[in-house]
Structure of phenylalanine--tRNA ligase:
Amino acid sequence: QLVLDTLDKFGTIQDTRTLVLPGYTDPAASHDSQIIILGALNSLSSREMISYTTHETVSHVLTPEGAQIALQGSHEARVWNELPRKGDGAPMTPKQLEERVGSETAKIGQGRAFKNKWISKEGDGLVKIAPSIEDNTQVELREVDSTGTLKSGEKPLAELRKRKLIVQRKGQWFTIKKGPAFSTSIAKPETDLTIDMLTSGSWKTSTYKKYNFEAEGLPTNGGALHPLLKVREEIRNIFLEMGFAEMPTSSFVESGFWCFDALFVPQQHPAREVQDTFYLSDPAESLPPPTAYYERVSKVHEHGGYGSTGYRAPWSDAESRKLLLRTHTTASSASMLYKLAAKCRGEDEDKSTESAAAHGSSAQAEKGGDDGFRPAKLFSIDRVFRNETMDATHLAEFHQVEGVVADRGLTLADLIGFMRVFFKKMGIENLRFKPAYNPYTEPSLEIFAFHPQLRKWVEVGNSGMFRPEMLEPMGFPKDVHVHGWGISLERPTMIRYGINNIRTLVGHKVSLESVENSPAVRF
Ligand code: PHE
């Protein structure tokens, strides 16, 4: 309002340092006053009520020591003040002086007061000799404090700077002119054109807020892909470009039969115990699996066959029918492979219900040179569950990436070669393989990759050639070999995003903001 009224009266304001702000008696020369004025200028000029130009200045402000002197006087003046007049009582000892003004003021003040000939020695003590003094330092500092400078010029300013009583500060002041929308009252500009304004005609005389094309829009409230989903998409693309088809993996609940028995995992295997696997209590049992296949699986476990001695341990139907949360996606791979072998069993792939008669026609197909087998490359990326103690790198549920290749005469070299190609597409070139054990694969290999940041070899996956004890009961011809491998989705995602605690990636501690801001992944 001050700016508008002054402009109304004089047409322009040459120098805003001449304005006297409401509540002040002196002109607004100080830095803080000009900042207050600048705020008003910005808001008035956005309404086009004024325009202004900025001038830079260098001004001075007091240091804490300078401020103290402006208030209490210079060290030398304080010393002079304390001392008795010469011939007017006993001289003051340096010790007494120190007690009164403090050691710093006593030390610095004495030196300067001697130099100014304000005081002198008398015996062991000190007295003042100047009848009156003028504390120039204090006067100057008070001037700097209120005007930012000294009328007497640059030399005494430089002296005060050298004494570290003042420092330079950049400031600004402004010249103001009327703008096209000048008025002495600030009307709140309209931001919307409303039906009321149109019908009443008030739109013609209203003032409008200028459209700000620079303003950033409100952030959109759309969904965002979780980092795991982004990495899943990239891995899925690698599989697809290598000619793999995605397996259906929606059955989180499986039976002991498909999760373990079909994979030739012994019924006594520790992985099947409750501390490793989540079992369902309701319903607790699965529907019966395909009869003939079930018979062959139980037989190879208990008594062997297909060149195997089996486990020679009693078979339990109950164990096989227990319902559980699948501990690996290999459960889905097993039922997909069983479906893939349907033609070899002489069945219709879609129906996949087995009968003795159907088995007969498989033998016929073999005689005719076509045993019904078709090669397949299958993959899945989905969730699995393990009853594990949770820590920084383990959760009770995670995702597995799994690939399965079925063809005649596949060898371990095919598996290794395939993995080199696959991991290379993920940007991992340095691989090592280590012999390992899985009940359903022989040989089995653990896959290690060199981690360039950690500078060590880390396990990235598990793989192997599926056993004949698993494949032959399904009905695959002997020369059909299947290799498979699995990696977790979380491990490459954590490496990719530099996350070292899995709980910042999955679970209730995940920040939605980090999900929204996580960049896309390109392998
Ligand atoms: N199922 C294995 C695991 O959970 C991975 C695997 C899949 C190993 C296929 C061999 C063949 O670690």
User: Anything to note?
Assistant: The longest strand covers residues 50-62. The radius of gyration is 44 Å. The first helix runs from residue 2 to 10. The pocket of phenylalanine is lined by residues 328, 330, 402, 438, 441, 462-464, 484-486 (CB under 6 Å).
